[in-house]
Amino acid sequence: MPDTNESIEALAQQEYKHGWVSHVDADQLPPGLNEDIVHAISAKKHEPEWLTEWRLRAFRHWLTMREPEWQKPKYPKIDYQGIIYYSAPKKKPEVSSLDEVDPELLETFEKLGISLDEQKRLSGVAVDAVFDSVSVKTTFREELSKQGIIFCSFSEAVTDHPELVKKYLGSVVPYTDNYFATLNSAVFSDGSFCYIPPGVRCPMELSTYFRINSAGTGQFERTLLIADEGAYVSYLEGCTAPQRDENQLHAAVVELVALKGAHIKYSTVQNWYPGDKDGKGGVYNFVTKRGMASENAKISWTQVETGSAITWKYPSCVLKGDNSVGEFYSVALTRDRQMADTGTKMIHIGKNTKSTIVSKGISAGHADQTYRGLVKIMKGATGARNYSVCDSLLIGGTCGAHTTPYIESANPTAVVEHEASTSKISDDQIFFLRQRGLSEEDAVSMIVNGFCKDVLSELPMEFAVEAQKLLGVKLEGAVG
Amino acid sequence: MTTPLLEIRDLHASVDGTEILHGLSLSINAGEVHAIMGTNGSGKSTLTKVIAGHPDYEVTGGDVLFKGRSILQDEPEERACAGIFLAFQYPVEVPGVSNLYFLRSALNAQRKSRGEAELSGAEFLALVKEKAKLVDIDQALLNRSVNEGFSGGEKKRNEIFQLAMLAPTLAILDETDSGLDIDALKTVAAGVNSLRSPERAFLLVTHYQRLLNYIEPDFVHVLLDGRVVKSGGKQLALELEDKGYAWIEEEAASA
Questions:
Q1: B53:A437 CB<8 A
Q2: Does position A199 have pLDDT exceeding 70, yes or no?
Q3: Is A480 a member of any domain?
């Protein structure tokens, strides 16, 4: 008779399915970091002087900072001088149709199941695909621009809309914010920019696919999303990466600006290379994501994190305006030697601000996960409310889950609730489902998806289906 | 002579290294209803789990044949797809998974394994409507998470509903009567009775004779210390109700 523990072990040992390296010639700077490199990046991108200066200020500040050590996941020291800070696909495409895009690049997207072609035709999703560091192709831009919506690569925004970039860049995550955000500010290569004018409801889900490629290239994305007064936008971000041996640092910054009455929904599905079963070679995902909500504005973060060797991030909301709302829905799945230290920060500044946190962590194999969250109620946040629930699900007996909620309240009228639970997938649950005819894999997948339901239901429809599949794939493996 | 639907031959089985079944034999033909009775710890539940293939139970001797073929090497889901159904004594909860989604997945997995086409949404719902009536199960329960927040009676009713939906050839009911009030017991029994057919056999595991007032067995077996020590007709159940188990133990000891 099969040993359930062994089978679960087998489930946790499935190899990364998106593992390959595509061969696109890269135009890259030599490894290392100094003022010359910062200048060179800025020059390569034909940036205005104010931005070069901004980068340099960030770089100089970074030199005075120390790499943080308080996080739970530990990793070997990163050699920042060994990283290549700029790399672009050689044939930088200036194309009007997909036919002109490097065929190998297209093939890469096909492997990932991200067919731009198909997306263009069928789904009504505008895709700004980031391959290494330079945006390759932006679709649907014309249609969006009719409504005054700007959706383009960050570099294009610097050229075409400098006033917006200058006004909002660093307004939510200042260049002095933290070690990795500061590093990003100095060397960021490209990313996405989005602006929704007042009162406009963006008619489609905006989507960016990130992908790390060129060996040894750190990726420093910068995303800036502004929803003007009364605007609405739903933004999707999804990632996957090829298999490799060296660790890859990914230190992105995402800034969301929700002006009066605006609503931003930001959804992420992340599936970067997690390393082999011993944890070798995976991506380090050290990302700073934060949104600023003005009066009556709402920011919702939804994330499904299944990849990376280490995930270290806290998508946060600064609830500055009265009656603003912040939400954080998260599923993090770690297996083998993956580690995650993730959660959110809800900073209540305005009156009657509300925040909701729903965090679901799943650990298998030797994985280790920490939920770390801060709910901070400032003195003026009269009537603030927070509700948090953090559930952990353990698969097998060698993984770990930790919950570290910080609650600071400086206003006596605030109501803060926190619930936490840790459970294991029981052998009885699996046996019950198998007795009804489901395979062990399907049984585990069903239990996990049920556990995550509250979060998955927050994702836009097509993303929810993808995420559900992804969780199933991540738990797949030879059974019996 | 026709092949029995289920044939258990000199079965030895243990859990955590302790042998619970010490040479149990039993034979069930299609269309029959068998009741297994016995005191706590006599091995009743162990028997049901071994037949269904629970990985915690190790078979150390003997054999279990289903439709003439040994199933001991089969995975639990393979046994389920072959037509063995176990109604659990303690139905488990699966939070966040709707009853209907779960059942449709299970039913289609079974159909697929038999080379049948999967049911469409409409076909499935029509079947649900038909079978829900049999066990008088509330439609609202069907859309809720599997057994989550169900009362004891609702959980048992849900088990019989699954039985009706999956239509197995061998249905094993492990103490389905425990924790049921008399009205719920009658409903569950009526559901089971309506599912009786010449092709389908039932194995009822129960502590008390009460259930057998409503589901009339063809055979009653008494389990003692991991063996069937006495078999008879439904009269045997009444005798046990009347005299308790002590006389059986004495009989077995002197045999």
A1: no
A2: yes
A3: no
